[in-house]
Amino acid sequence: MIVTGELAPGERLNERELCARLNVSRTPIREAIKTLAQDGLLQVWPNRSPVVMPLEAAQTAALVEVVATIEALAGELCASRITDAQVAELGILHYTMLRHHADQDLRAYFAANKAFHRLIIECSGNPVLTWVWDLLALRVDRARYSSNLRPERWRQAIQEHAQVLERMTARDPQGVADALRSHLRAGLSLVVQTLVEAERSAPSNPGDAPG
């Protein structure tokens, strides 16, 4: 809900309302809040409602640098280790994304998109790299989802995935690395640019920290 913007940046969460909305007790809600706070998606203070963290330009720019490097390395390793069956699976995910794009179903597209990138990470055969990617996954998801809210960027992302698949099919490690690095930077840097512009135009305020 945070990733898709259903819970907006700056929104305060009400535990009782979330329990009713998700049909669960308060215990899993509180555990989820703790986890999301650790992942940097929620801000939590004692005796106050948790607040959805805003996306910040500086933090997102730093995330771009790290994730682009991680996925480029994963792509390079994957291209030399991937099996024909895994290439076929990657192709199925790509065409699944094409179908969801044609239907303008962003949520379904996003699920296939994440599976596409996760498969490349898995096929790298490097458990440490996989661990780091999973550690950043929710923050990356949020920025990636935001980038596809622009129709022109969404169309471009489809073309970039096709290039990744083409280079992977050719077993071209450097080509895959370059394609993934370019893809990540193109999408997430657009989010950074939007955030910078928003921060420049926003009126200054004392913040939401407790007094």
Detail the topology: elements first, then pairings.
Elements: H1 15-22, H2 26-38, E1 42-43, E2 51-52, H3 57-79, H4 84-102, H5 106-123, H6 127-147, H7 151-169, H8 173-201
Helix pairs in contact: 3-5, 3-6, 3-8, 4-5, 4-7, 5-6, 6-8, 7-8
Structural overview:
There is one protein chain. The protein has 211 residues and is an all-alpha fold. It folds into two domains: 15-54, no CATH class; 57-199, GntR ligand-binding domain-like (Four Helix Bundle (Hemerythrin (Met), subunit A), Up-down Bundle). Helices cover 71% and strands 2% of the residues. It contains eight helices and two strands, in the order ααββαααααα. It has helices spanning 15-22, 26-38, 57-79, 84-102, 106-123, 127-147, 151-169, 173-201; strands at 42-43, 51-52. The protein has a two-stranded antiparallel sheet. Helix 3 (57-79) packs across helix 6 (127-147), helix 4 (84-102) runs antiparallel to helix 5 (106-123) and helix 4 packs antiparallel against helix 7 (151-169). The longest helix is centred in the C-terminal third of the chain and has 29 residues, at 173-201. The relative contact order is 0.15. Mean pLDDT is 91; it is low at 206-211.
Give the C-level CATH assignment of the largest domain: Mainly Alpha
Ranges where pLDDT stays below 50 over 5 or more residues in a row are 206-211
Overall strand count: 2
Secondary-structure-derived class: mainly alpha
Instruction: Note the run of SSEs as H and E.
Output: HHEEHHHHHH
For the termini, the CA-CA separation is: 29 Å
- Please state the overall shape, judged from the principal axes of the Cα atoms: globular
CATH superfamily of the largest domain: GntR ligand-binding domain-like
